[in-house]
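3.2 Worked example (two chains)
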Amino acid sequence: MKEPELLSLADFLYVLWKRKNQALLVFGVVVALGIAYLAVAKKTYRLSGSIYVGRFQTDLLEEGEFVAQKLQDYSFIKKALEMNQVELEVSAMKLQRNIDAHVLNEVRKTKDVGIVLLTVEYHDPEKCHAIFKALTDQLVREHDKLKDDALNVLRSMERFFKVNENELQASIDADEAFAAENLRTPQEGQAWPAHVLARYTISEKREFLKQIIQDRHYLKLEGEAATKSFGTRLSAEPQVPDKHVKPRKAVVLATAVVAAAVLGAVWALFLELVDTQIKPRFRAAKARVEARNAA
């Protein structure tokens, strides 16, 4: 059996030249389809921004990794859209796939510095901006509440210590007044049990009062330091995107041209194969059948 000959480069170029009209037709159709796709495809806009996670004193309000996960969480996205009254044509679950957030730790590789990059993609620039604002505003609200709650705890503890301080000071004053009125001063070299007990009790209360005053002073300093803490904020105010990121015109056209060239060449080779290989075989087979019938 004769082995089929391989198509050389010269043969390939000859076939392309011979079938250039058919190849150019396919090329033009594919390129036209690429241009038509650019005309009708929905444009996707992207908005990115860095979020600085707030701190209470020296501690992050929430870890950066947790903030990144929260921004991509379905329940958080849905709540943020509802709170900001953002109405979309797609569900929060579909929108979830177009939201990305991850931690940026270029400053300190081994420590969470609380910088999160949030990226939102949507086919409408105004809605893209609204979604971004809804997510960041909701995050800021929640973090402000965390900071306020922590500050309120410090203030309530300070008030609690102040009340205890006042009550303990009043108790000491009462004990001293009672001792002055009811206990005689012991004679030299003598010590009455009641007098010793009263003085011991007053001394213990004074030590306890001293500790309460120190603790309250510490809490006051903590509260003053907390007021200097900063809340969660954006690196810059987000702006409505004015250029789309998808589809990319250059990429689509380049892909269409390459695909058109390949398909045009394949179509030319296919037509040549049909004319030179397949059709002659069909004609020969038909002739043999007619010859047998005639005999």
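3.2.1 Second chain
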Amino acid sequence: MNPYFPGVVVRSSASAPSVEELRLPEIGPGQVRVRVRAAGVCHSDLSMINGTLQPPHPLVLGHEAAGEVVEAGEHVTRVAAGDHVVLNWQPACRECWFCTHGQPWLCSTSSGVAALENGITMDGDPVFVGLGLGAFAEQVVAPANAVIRVPADLDFELAALLGCGVLTGTGAVRNTARVQPGETVVVIGLGGVGLSVVAAARAAGAASVIAVDVSDAKKALAEAAGATDFLVSSDNLSKEIRTRTSRLGADHAFECVGRSATIRAAWRATRRGGQVTVVGMGANDDMVSLSALDIFSSARTLRSSVYGSSDPDVEIPLLAADVLDGKLSLDHLITDRITLADVPAAFDRMARGEGARSVVVL
């Protein structure tokens, strides 16, 4: 085995991502080594280089990925060499209070872990791996509970999307908001997650799904995902939404950007008694201000959806089966297929609001 492999690394908070040579450690008990075959460029990766999150450095980026198990360590029984797997960036410990009370997506062991060390080195020094994975690399070493087996006939590029964007968006609709047939839905922010929310809302039977973005270029993507209406965000957004929802506002609004301004926009777009679900991850110092009287009189519910309020061990195999059965189409989500060297350009496109998902193909 060649112990050296390329990966996309950010050396410091002031440096740009670049492809560097990394050295993989020997795997230990309870660990697996995975050959990454595809990895999606997610907004959480961008948050680690634009200051929204402040992880330690040097840092290997990437967490939305799929690949093939190369080697399984001692005591690993859930996967074996040759298995196709999706990586799980927030694996449940199954022992903490949240895991034992039916909320593994809030696992106290893995929640809030922006990066950790797992033995990978660069120039002889340890490096951190983003969200415990560092999947913008040819190989990763991960704990066995961070890999989920999927059918071998599922395309790696599509499988990768299940590990974050699709599970997050679909789960927000199915598990957190529990959208019902005939309800009206607004989705603000049409990246990979937002488009997955659009598709899931339509699949849930929503009567109308109003997709909102700052760029008119997202209209075709929104329609491909199943949106019934498309609006470019403006100061009159809540008024425009009310004209499309019998002057009431939507039953549900999903905020998929992670900014206080768009959270307030989602709040104003929702009817009295409606639900606002925050899916986007924002900055610690970006404060949301709402009127105390408005909170009382509107009777709206404001909540977040962490990782789709899902148990990935259960739901990723189900989503994989839906893709293979033709019940769930993901082709519209991939707008760019790239190499590791192209990741910085993919971040630039994401920052400009262009496209849906760029997928690194390895």
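3.3 Remarks
Residues 156-177 form the longest helix (22 residues).
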